[in-house]
Structure prediction request, 390 residues.
Amino acid sequence: MSELRIAFLINSFYPDTAGGAELFAFEVSKHLTREEGHEFHVITPRMSIRHQLQDWGYHLGKLPKYQNIKGIHIHRVPYIFHSKLSWFTYFLSAPYVFEKLGAFDVIHSHLVISAGFAGVLVKKISCLPLIITEQGLYHNELKYLRPAIKHSFHEADLIHVVSRILKKRVSDMDISPEKIHVVPNGVDVDKFRFDVEERERIRSELDLGEDPMIITVSRLVPKNGVDLLLRAFKIVRSEINNVKLIVLGDGPENQYLKDLSRHLRIKDSVLFLGHKPHEALPSYYSASDLFVRTPYDEGFGIVFIEAMACGLPTIGTDVGGVSDIIINGQNGVLIKKNNFIQIANEIINVLQDKKFMDRLSMQGRKTAIKKFSWNTISTEMDSLYHKIMA
Prediction:
């Protein structure tokens, strides 16, 4: 297949931010630069960084206007952070920079809000084919921005989503299902794997000994249901006295959740460790015995496949894209949303059944390698780029 020159439009980019969309864009561009010889130019805001440090884990310091990371050309454009104007400033800046970078073959916008809007404008200017990748589409976004989102999807030549539920949400906006393609998020199965030395190191640092350890990794926002997990954990601790819960992540609910743990009288067994760099996560997964995440909604949930790649038995809410990952009772456990009693019962059942834990561990790792390795995902995305060029 021919080498392509591809413009990525994205609201933030790894390693500045390590969310699902940022990781996807980075890993796909890295793999296809190396394996296929494509040339990727990322056009992303040049933020001051401070405004979302706790929520997302931005690196400190002023980001340069241009960087080359792993052969990926990163162009950071002027940006004013303001809750109502941020997307609009990027909408104006991105096309201006795009025009200065020469000819491209494809425009690829990651997330319809802001980057997708800018992608439509760039398409009008350049007459190039446009792909929009979507990983969320939650109710509050659809409520206020539905007309702009729908228009952007109509203008796109191809829409990439990371789960079946997202394909349905997009098609429900009167978008032809034929132009919506599902390619999931991925995981680096070489980096995300069990490491016994890291298990011992982290457990020693946290003074855990051999206590059973549950971990959740999440932005601390209402959608992610960490409050449900805390309520479930209170029941779990009444059955398993020495069990511990590790919470990795920051966000606006941080203080509320700490207060809730005190109110539930479990604060001595819950460790809020804040945000950890993405590259540190395999160590914490290795140190744990069970991964649990209980969101009310989820576009995909990259942390599920990261935990599974580390051989960690996994429990998740049966919402959104989680059921694209977990096959109940085979490579993980699915639970109903908003039911902390069921969450508690399943956690207890898994922790008290060593054979079941071992089976979930083995099958979870196999699932990550077979379905979600970045080599597999990048090959599927390359096919979409050539499909849109045909």
Summary: The longest strand covers residues 39-45.
